[in-house]
């Protein structure tokens, strides 16, 4: 569980939670503090949150609470909650409105007193390869009554990787109709009735909210209490409980999915920064060398200085940092007051406050450096290592019991006693003792990715390694082959007499297609901005193809759409600039696109997709012929495909022949061009 005061895009996590609650109309907030309680309380007491009109923030402290169940029992004993309440963790980021969810919950309660909880969920397809969501959480299986939205089954620890789940036969017997989902994400936002607190008070074996309380109620047929779900569609809600979710949600904030809670909009607890072109955020008083390059989706904090020839991409740099010359920072999170000397390289790492990297140091993917660590000159920190000033304890104390849900978490949170040890053991930067991190370094390596820690990649800020994806992909292919009929092909049953329910099926397919398009576009944009290898992108797109049950043509259309849309979204002054940008993207990613075009018909469909986009964009339309010619020159589409596309338009309406007419000279040239002769004579 990540501490709620740790920076998320240079703002303490708890500020996002409180800002959302205030905007949602919540008037009173109780913050329960256990681990790091003194830090949290001191921060809140010194913040603006304690002086806001019509918004009261109170803290409740108990260092004896070791689980969510203990915390709720303590709150029940304090008798501070007397009606319905919203239960969340302090690391929740959302912009959803609570009004409709609260209304549904209260209306349901009027009809059924046993409806004591409403869980907020949203759609999120897990990867069929890793069986994880984009937040690094396990694949979740829910059974929901489609009429009432009652939750009937909840499981995130199962045999899904073996292709099976276990359901009690009484669930089927008692509920003739229910939908089984594995495409939902638990937002960990619960609307609760007071009975929830009393149930925890009466059942001391309830520790975890999901593993014990939710699952306990679902199998309890004596009390008759019920849990319902509320699905959000256009809003954002997610919880940070591992490093992968920290990375994912940070990128979502930077890419403005959490609006209005974004870096350039002032809200309580943050300092607004300026949004430059291509999504780069820069605060005031930043010292940036002319030769330094800061790429898109990068945040630079106030008072930070960046040296010559330094390259920063897809990273967040905190306040008061000093970054030397010839430094490379990619996909990393550098917190406040960090010193990075010349020639250092950071790739998909987290660097906490006060860290120093001496010249030439290298942080491999997945590294986490704790507070005030010093990495020695030219020292290479192994991938997925965690480095601390404290030696790794033999029997590590853990606050995993404090998790809001029983999720896997790589994040280490020490007690207040450890905080004091940190302060006492911080070495002077000029008199460092060499521990395990090189000459003039200070720190102990806690974890190294070897056989013991082979699962570290699942919850890291680093992208999943290619070799791991390939290994998992091969397992998926084997499982798929085992489930196919002897012919090796699954054919849908065709029925000309469609029922009324078929309309819903069609809408669901359309929703899947739209969602698939968005997922491919997000994958492609990450590849562009983070310089991801094309082989890695192929694996990710193939995973999406399997997850959404799409074809190679669907992949090609989605990729081509993403390329052209990126060109349209890139700032340009004229149609010539737009054409130049689109041409550069087509040339760079032609191999990726061509890999999904296996037939003439598929190439024609891509041309039709291009034609459709040109019809929707007046500034793109004049470039149709030139870009089509480029696709021919780059062997993305063949001559036969282009001529067949034109032939299909012969009997079309005049308005549908706009681009055939525009490409008339090019088409004539193709028809008259001499065919290549394989003979030398």
From TrEMBL:
GO terms for cellular component: cytosol; eukaryotic translation initiation factor 2B complex. Signal peptide: none annotated. Pfam families: LbH_EIF2B, NTP_transferase, W2. Belongs to the eIF-2B gamma/epsilon subunits family. This is Translation initiation factor eIF2B subunit epsilon. Keywords: Cytoplasm, Initiation factor, Protein biosynthesis. Residues 395-425, 480-504 are annotated as: Disordered. Component of the translation initiation factor 2B (eIF2B) complex which is a heterodecamer of two sets of five different subunits: alpha, beta, gamma, delta and epsilon. Subunits alpha, beta and delta comprise a regulatory subcomplex and subunits epsilon and gamma comprise a catalytic subcomplex. Within the complex, the hexameric regulatory complex resides at the center, with the two heterodimeric catalytic subcomplexes bound on opposite sides.
């Amino acid at each position: 569980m990540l501490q709620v005061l740790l920076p998320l895009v240079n703002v303490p996590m708890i500020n996002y939670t409180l800002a959302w609650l205030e905007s949602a109309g919540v008037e009173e907030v109780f913050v329960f503090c256990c681990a790091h309680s003194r830090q949290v309380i001191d921060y809140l007491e010194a913040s603006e949150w304690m002086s806001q009109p019509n918004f009261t923030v109170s803290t409740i402290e108990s260092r004896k609470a070791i689980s969510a169940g203990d915390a709720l029992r303590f709150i029940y004993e304090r008798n501070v909650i007397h009606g319905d309440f919203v239960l969340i963790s302090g690391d929740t980021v959302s912009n959803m409105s609570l009004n409709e969810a609260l209304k549904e919950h209260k209306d349901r309660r009027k009809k059924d007193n046993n409806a004591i909880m409403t869980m907020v969920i949203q759609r999120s397809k897990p990867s069929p390869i890793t069986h994880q969501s984009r937040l690094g959480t396990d694949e979740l299986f829910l059974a929901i009554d489609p009429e009432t939205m009652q939750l009937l089954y909840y499981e995130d620890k199962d045999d899904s990787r073996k292709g099976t789940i276990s359901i009690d036969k009484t669930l089927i017997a008692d509920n003739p109709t229910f939908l089984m989902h594995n495409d939902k994400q638990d937002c960990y936002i619960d609307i609760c009735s007071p009975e929830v607190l009393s149930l925890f008070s009466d059942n001391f074996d309830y520790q975890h909210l999901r593993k014990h309380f939710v699952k306990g109620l679902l199998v309890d047929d004596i009390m008759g209490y019920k849990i319902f779900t509320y699905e959000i569609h256009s809003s954002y809600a997610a919880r940070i409980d591992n490093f992968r979710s920290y990375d994912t949600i940070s990128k979502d904030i930077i890419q403005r999915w959490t609006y209005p809670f974004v870096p350039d909009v002032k809200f309580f607890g943050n300092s607004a920064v300026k949004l430059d072109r291509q999504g780069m955020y820069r605060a005031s008083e930043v010292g940036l060398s002319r030769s330094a390059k800061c790429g898109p989706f990068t945040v630079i904090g106030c008072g930070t200085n960046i040296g010559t020839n330094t390259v920063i991409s897809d990273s967040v740099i905190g306040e008061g940092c000093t970054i030397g010359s010839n430094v490379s920072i990619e996909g990393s999170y550098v917190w406040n007051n960090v010193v990075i000397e010349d020639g250092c390289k950071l790739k998909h790492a987290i660097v906490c406050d006060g860290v120093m990297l001496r010249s030439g140091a290298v942080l491999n993917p997945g590294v986490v450096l704790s507070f005030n660590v010093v990495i020695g000159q030219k020292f290479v920190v192994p991938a997925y290592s965690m480095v601390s000033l404290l030696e790794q304890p033999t029997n590590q104390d853990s606050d995993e019991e404090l998790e809001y849900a029983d999720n896997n978490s790589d994040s280490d949170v020490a007690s207040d006693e450890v905080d004091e040890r940190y302060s006492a053991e911080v070495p002077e930067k000029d008199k460092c003792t060499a521990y395990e991190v090189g000459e003039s370094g200070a720190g102990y390596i806690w974890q190294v990715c070897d056989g013991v820690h082979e699962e570290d990649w699942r919850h890291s800020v680093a992208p999943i390694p290619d070799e791991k994806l390939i290994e998992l992909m091969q397992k998926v292919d084997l499982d798929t082959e085992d489930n196919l009929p002897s012919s090796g092909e699954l054919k849908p049953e065709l029925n000309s007499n469609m029922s009324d329910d078929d309309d819903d099926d069609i809408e669901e397919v359309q929703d899947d297609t739209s969602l698939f398009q968005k997922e491919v576009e997000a994958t492609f944009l990450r590849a562009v901005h983070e310089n991801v290898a094309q082989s890695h992108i192929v694996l990710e797109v193939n995973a999406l193809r399997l997850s959404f049950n799409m074809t190679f043509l669907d992949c090609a259309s989605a990729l081509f759409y993403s390329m052209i849309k990126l060109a349209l979204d890139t700032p340009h002054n004229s149609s010539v600039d737009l054409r130049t940008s689109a041409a550069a993207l087509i040339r760079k990613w032609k191999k990726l696109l061509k890999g999904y075009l296996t037939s003439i018909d598929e190439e024609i469909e891509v041309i039709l997709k291009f034609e459709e986009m040109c019809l929707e964009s007046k500034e793109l339309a004049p470039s149709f012929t030139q870009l089509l010619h480029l696709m021919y020159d780059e062997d993305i589409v063949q001559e036969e495909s282009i001529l067949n596309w034109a032939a299909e338009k012969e009997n079309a309406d005049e308005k549908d022949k706009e681009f055939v007419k525009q490409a008339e000279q090019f088409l004539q040239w193709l028809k008259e061009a001499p065919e290549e002769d394989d003979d030398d004579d």
